[in-house]
From TrEMBL:
The Prokaryotic-type class I peptide chain release factors domain, residue ranges: 23-39
Taxonomic placement: Bacteria, Pseudomonadati, Planctomycetota, Planctomycetia, Planctomycetia incertae sedis
Key word Hydrolase present: yes
Family: Belongs to the prokaryotic/mitochondrial release factor family.
EC number: 3.1.1.29
Keywords, in A-Z order: Hydrolase
A Gene Ontology biological process term: rescue of stalled ribosome
Ranges of Basic residues composition bias in the record: 110-120, 128-143
Originating gene: arfB
Molecular function per GO: peptidyl-tRNA hydrolase activity; ribosome binding; translation release factor activity
SUPFAM superfamilies hit by this protein: Release factor
Species of the source: Saltatorellus ferox
Protein name: Peptidyl-tRNA hydrolase ArfB
Amino acid sequence: MSDLVVNERLTIPSAEFTVKTMRASGPGGQHVNKVETAVELRFAVGPSASLSNNEKAKIRSRLGSRLVGEDETLVVRARAQRSQKRNLDDAFERMATLLREAFITEKARRATRPTKGSQRRRVDAKKQRGALKKQRRGGGHED
């Protein structure tokens, strides 16, 4: 297992990950029933020494629903491939993608004003609708 490179500034050492293997479900006959190819990769965010408090806060806010337990563990399971090595590589790649997306900061939206044309179209539509309603109004019936 090598260290996980999340981005150019952050690399998480492999010692901070826990790997658990298990038997994968699904079709495969005898092979799937006796070989542990599925992989569960765990990363404890809370006690991690490689993350700053700011980075931990970003992970908590963006991936909070995926964090498990008191040590705020991020869990990724991979069982799509037939070999344990490929599932492990897949799990590490998915973990890196999750962490990468957690650190992306969205650009703040700049407030813009409605264009003159859009304002004119809105007012024209309102006037047209009002005229239609006015046309529907009938005068009182005098008997």
